[in-house]
Amino acid sequence: MTSPQSTERFSDRVADYVRYRPGYPAETLDVLRDAVGLTSESVVADIGSGTGISTELLLRSGAEVYGVEPNDPMRAAAEAQLSANPRFHSVRGTAEATTLADGSVDIVAAAQAFHWFDRDRTRSEFARILRSAGYVVLLWNSRHVDTTPLLRGYEALLQQYATDYNAVNHQNIDAAAVARFYAPGTCTRIVLPNSQSFDFAGLRGRLLSSSYAPAAGDPRHEPMLAALRQLFDDHAAAGASGEKLARFDYDTEIYYGRLDS
């Protein structure tokens, strides 16, 4: 699915993406240490690294991390946050053409990005850059869509106003599709709980960080924000300080395995 449209579609969303997209649970590192041998000696390629959310997590392990990202504004945001870390390397590349050397990495990771890739070409590229017995790790934060009235309302809002939400939703990539990517090798799936809580400004920013949310100037933009305001007023709950907050719950899905041939 990599194309100029898919690699550039977040260019005007970077500030909201940095501020309002969810991170990954700290337990993710425990899973990766136990499952794929992530250590401070590892070399990791974080493919589709975007603004560096997953890259920052991986760097916390002490590993050397190459953040491979085709979108210039997103890559610049990651560089602004992470370049002080000597273990971080920013790379302009794609999943299908990373520019990394043959057999140069122990782990290839892709967080919230795999659904944008051309899977056949990506598989060949991952196999090329991985060292013998290296692992591929795929991660997603999968938002719950029907567990609370607020989350059901948010999903309905996207169905009504979003541009191409159903076409680009990462949940179109199911477990069977992931298994086909690893075949003839196998993969393991682990799920961790994750969540975010927002005031209205945060909820608005979370929505506008999505590439399918109509931007300012689109006739759907203002009605969408009005509907979001109503959704928040109707269903946000009081937090510990009494401030109304909207809670998003996620399943952090971690797939890992080898690309055996």
Task: Describe this structure as you would to a colleague.
It is built from eleven helices and eight strands. By secondary structure, the chain is an alpha/beta fold. It has a domain at 4-144 and 169-195 and 250-257: Vaccinia Virus protein VP39 (Rossmann fold, 3-Layer(aba) Sandwich). Strands 1, 2, 3, 4, 5, 6, 7 and 8 form an eight-stranded mixed β-sheet that branches. It is globular. The model has no long low-confidence stretch (mean pLDDT 92).
Strand-helix topology:
Blueprint: H1 4-8, H2 14-20, H3 27-36, E1 43-47, H4 53-59, E2 64-68, H5 72-82, E3 88-91, E4 105-111, H6 119-129, E5 130-143, H7 149-161, H8 165-168, H9 175-182, E6 187-198, H10 200-208, H11 221-235, E7 237-238, E8 244-257
Parallel strand pairs: 1-2, 1-4, 2-3, 4-5
Antiparallel strand pairs: 5-8, 6-8, 7-8
Helix pairs in contact: 2-10, 7-11
